[in-house]
Amino acid sequence: GQSLEQPSEVTAVEGAIVQINCTYQTSGFYGLSWYQQHDGGAPTFLSYNALDGLEETGRFSSFLSRSDSYGYLLLQELQMKDSASYFCAVTVSGSARQLTFGSGTQLTVLP
Amino acid sequence: DTGVSQNPRHKITKRGQNVTFRCDPISEHNRLYWYRQTLGQGPEFLTYFQNEAQLEKSRLLSDRFSAERPKGSFSTLEIQRTEQGDSAMYLCASSPTESGANVLTFGAGSRLTVL
Question: Could B41 and A103 be called an inter-chain contact, meaning their C-beta atoms sit closer than 8 Å?
Answer without folding.
Answer: yes
